[in-house]
Amino acid sequence: MDIYEVVRGPLVWIAFLGLAGGVVVKLLLMASLAKKEKTVFPTMSASHGLRSILHWIMPWGSTNMRAWPVMTTVSFAFHLCLLVTPLFVMGHAVSWQQSWGISWWSLPALAADIMTLWVVCGGVFFLIRRLTAPEVRNVTTFKDVLLILLVISPYLTAFVAHEQWFNNDVMIVLHIVTGVLWMLAIPFTWLSHMFWFVFTRAYMGSEFGAVRNARDW
Fold this sequence. Notes:
Blueprint: H1 3-37, H2 40-43, H3 46-57, H4 63-67, H5 69-88, H6 90-100, H7 109-132, H8 134-137, H9 142-163, H10 168-185, H11 193-211
Helix pairs in contact: 1-10, 3-11, 5-7, 7-9, 9-10
């Protein structure tokens, strides 16, 4: 078994199992902590929570977003491309077809390239902001910088492999390895906000709406 088969097979399984297991464990821990607080669950309101979530997932849906239009535009496009591209890029669709016999629609090559580059450029934008903007520079650590680089690495290596600028086999292996590391990091770093966003926004919306009679957007 060569290195490609190792990273494409067992290593990817480790990534999926680590991601799923980590998310489940963190979710159980969060539920346990919320139960101990004795105010979290009683405060939760389905209507206020849902209203808050809807406002915060809509571009320019909150006052803060409208105050920072460039940041909002870059951030929403970044997150959209970050999530959609891996699901619908042709190479991944072919892998699912070959491995599991599952097929679905894939992005046109040009669209996939543009979305991939947007993730890379968006990551660079966030990195520069982290290092230069005082409001975030003061709370940025070396770990934060590494995480941003880790997030964009699978997309950068995928683009380089697609363009065949360097040794294609090496770049594909690097693409898979960085993707695996990215997935394993999600449950244990601030990258987990992709899962916890719904819960935190629901709680904030419930507290502001049901308790303070105010909007949190």
